[in-house]
Amino acid sequence: MRYLYQKLHGDQTPDSIVLDPVFVDRSQPPKEQISTAQLSQYVKGWGGDQQGYTDWLKQAEQGAAKK
Question: CB neighbours of 20 closer than 8 A, spacing ≥ 6?
Answer without folding.
Answer: 45, 49
